[in-house]
Amino acid sequence: MPDISDATKRLLLGRPVRSERLGHTLLPKRIALPVFASDALSSVAYAPDEVLLTLSLVGASALVVSPWVGVAVAVVMITVVASYRQNVHAYPSGGGDYEVATENLGPTAGVTVASALLVDYVLTVAVSVSSGAQYAATALPILRGHETEFAIVVVVLLTLINLRGVRESGTAFAIPTYLFMASIGALAVVGAIRYVAGTLPLAESAGFHLIPEAGYDAGLTGVAGGFLVLRAFASGSAALTGVEAISNGVPSFQKPKSKNAATTLALLGGIAITMMLSILLLSRATHLQLADDPADQLLSGGTPVGSSYVQHPVISQLSAAVFGGRGVMYVVIAVVTGLILVLAANTAFNGFPVLGSVLARDGFLPRQLHTRGDRLAFSNGIITLAAGAIVLIWAFHAQVTHLIQLYIVGVFVSFTLSQLGMTRHWTRVLATEQDEARRAQMRRSRVINGFGFFLTGVVLVVVLITKFVRGAYIAILAMACVFVIMKAINRHYTRVRKELALGDDLAEARALPSRVHAIVLVSHLHRPTMRALAYARAFRPQEIEAITVGVDADEVTALREQWDSLDIPVPLKVLDSPFREITRPVISYVRSIHRDSPRDLVVVYIPEYVVGHWWEQLLHNQSALRLKARLLFTPGVVVASVPWQLSSTAGQTGLEEYAPGTIPRAY
Question: What would the 3-class secondary structure string for 615-652 be?
Fold first, then answer.
């Protein structure tokens, strides 16, 4: 069985990679861009949709306002990118927002940022994959109604790819990402040329009349309309997710790490802004209509289109209009858009494990998240992220409209606290810096981060106000839960570290036990028992005895006779058990020895079968497992398990491929 499982693992993940090859897994900018920026770039496929869907509640005026909402998002994007370029130069170790907040605002702020980012990374995977599943269902009608199952399968595939290693996953994702950028670029350029030439057709939905929903008859002039614009802006701000992943992933870049990360940030910002504004402007130019409730809001000849109407995403409608129908370019754009939405989750698959490793190193998450797997990827973090995303996809049925309400709250919490921390960082270092050129640079950086703090703080307030009752409260509760769990883990590790510390009295720590009392547990007189007796005698304890529990009088008599006939040089003691228990008499006897001689060390040797099949474990070792579990809680007692390999374990050590010959079955 281990051979089969190991072969399957090697087939799926590849052969182990030596630690000294870690440098070969670092990413050049051309690979880092699709790895870390695919989340922000993919938002072009759903952020404009969400802006138009939100504004559609007021009717036809949605198209007039949507480009200005895009401009507002672009201003925030430029500010955040400029701010994070300062972050990656000042903190290149990979802690990102967590490290910035912890060092400059304190551990509580750091854990707050970390909990927000961890939740948002999980949401990134859920939203991106769910959106990709919806695009796939548009292109392949057979998937309609099965988006949830399709999305879960995609998450599993992404997990396997990332478990193979960062560089391999980045190379696999680079081509689809660049194809998506080229496709949207072609859509924007051809659309602009046809618009200037006066040959740009209208979108397939342009002929419909979009009516406002009840309560929004006043359009954008009333309080409700203004609030709706803020909601649209909050939804469009999803385009900013992924920026923070680069600050967390600086160690994954090739040298010079900070410079390459800053360049990648600039590329991310420029490309994402250009693509999003192009989509919104083309939507306005083609009179594209997108409704939150198309069956009732869209009218054809004064009559609602009804539930039979299938509303296609914005990019699908634009590509059909710009390229004159559903030809080759329409199919190409649909395919690469679906791919980039799925692959956008890869940003989280790179950010979450690195951040989890840093938090585990600092004692806020289980230590297992800090170690790399045999492919030099943070395997435990990758699997944890995938599990969380699958739960969300299943719970929300892969519906982007529902999931996106939980989205971006966490990322703007981290943006705001990070920029405040960077502002304090520059203030602190300015107090000691003497070089005037460096002081001027630091003052400029402080202004950038200060403005970033103000703007992201405003956006955070807008997001909380507009999205709280629509589902953002769930994300906030999740962040609070993660915060409490991380604090509890840290308290546990701190308490254990203090408990295990040597302290000042080294003499007590070095003191040896006065005597060693060895006890060998005996159920039957067979080869495992003889091996346990041999082990116990080999350590030359001051006192040694064998004990058995007298459950059946005939069996005890037979055991004594066999023991005496073999002339075993170890006394055999029989413990009474009137209620036919095994564990309790042994525990009581061991505790009595420790109670009578507290400075003695009691070593209990337990013969144990090593089995090769899971079902064999059910048939053996049950008494031994119960005894070990109880003895481990007994002070002054050491439990020594003496293994005996049954024949079913042959060839299951996992070492046969590395060492010639067979492993001896006896010592």
Answer: HHHHHCCHHHHHHHHHHCCCCCEEEEEEEEECHHHCCC
